[in-house]
Amino acid sequence: MLSIIIPALNEEKYLPKLLDCVNEQTYKDYEIIVADANSEDKTIRLAKKYGCRIVKGGLPGISRNKGAKAAKGNILLFMDADSAIGPKFLEEALNKIKKRKLDVAGCYLRPSSDRIIDGIFLGIFNSWTFLTQYFYPNACGAGIFCKKWLHDKIKGFDNTIKLSEDMNYVRRAGKLGKFGIIRNPKVIFSMRRYDNEGRFNVGFKLLLSGFYRVFFGEIRSDIFKYNLKYKK
Question: Rounded to two decimals, what is the model's pTM?
Fold first, then answer.
């Protein structure tokens, strides 16, 4: 079984779209766990309507860990509530994981918008994750597969990390299991943060954070002011 784990905080606008995508999958052996960080809108009500299991969440890393702890599947898929996937995503991705004998995998991203700049931005990110997959694993939390035994072995996401905890997760997992990037099918990545905060602003912060991690280690303070608007 596959356990799909979705952190959520006030996602009534986006979560149903993702859940519709999951319901349309050709692969059916899954459960959906929504780790909710005290939403004040209809997020929990909608998740229950779709048959999701609900666990208490917090910051994204905490939510993912709590979702994984409750998971019944032997493979975990971590997704963002504002992401989307095509109807054959699960079937094709799991087939590639099996064929390549991967224990942990990241996915290529496709922007939710038609803007050229967004395609360029995510194209650079995709190329970077593909080129570094064999010696320094990187992946976005919008789409990470991991075997349950491996997640437990590395003790999940590091909740002391303020930014790029997803990158740290796959890097640690890649030391004990086989990591790879799935180029197709792609996860449809929401550009809403870039719309709200500006593409240059968000992109520059992420670029700086990448250099920081290479030279100084993981980001355990709010040095980049990357506000997730999640409650602890």
Answer: 0.92
